[in-house]
Amino acid sequence: MRFREFVEKNDFVDFIIESFENAPIDLVETQDVQQLTQYQKPWSAKKSEILQMWRQVKPNLPVIMTPMHKNYEGKTRSYGEDGIRITGSWQFIAAIIGRLKELLFYENPNSKLRLIFKAIDSSKNARPDRQSYVFYINAQDRGKKR
Known about the structure:
Layout: H1 3-21, H2 30-36, H3 47-56, E1 83-88, H4 90-98, E2 111-119, E3 133-141
Antiparallel strand pairs: 1-3, 2-3
């Protein structure tokens, strides 16, 4: 399924589900609503689609990273937020972040970079023949100055 078809299909599915959820209860069997609102697997691109998209993306697009939002408890979580995770050898990680220098502009008076760079515990299924690392980068709002 192409991305456009996915979006069109899901907009239609959302419309149908919303229509049934807002319908008077006597018009819709409870079992029908439960079937319509059951978990739907998140969209996932096929390798061929990813390669096609990757080849078509302009190499000079600006990297725009939206700072992470705080949840209702005031905590910041990175899952689903703009960010990058790179794993592997130190040399590989260094080569990749060397190409991402424009992200350094997010370290400024209004935002800060959340950076994590650490060794991976070899007992966690990492390669036993070398030391592996993980590097994370996200942006956060600095918040109000005191």
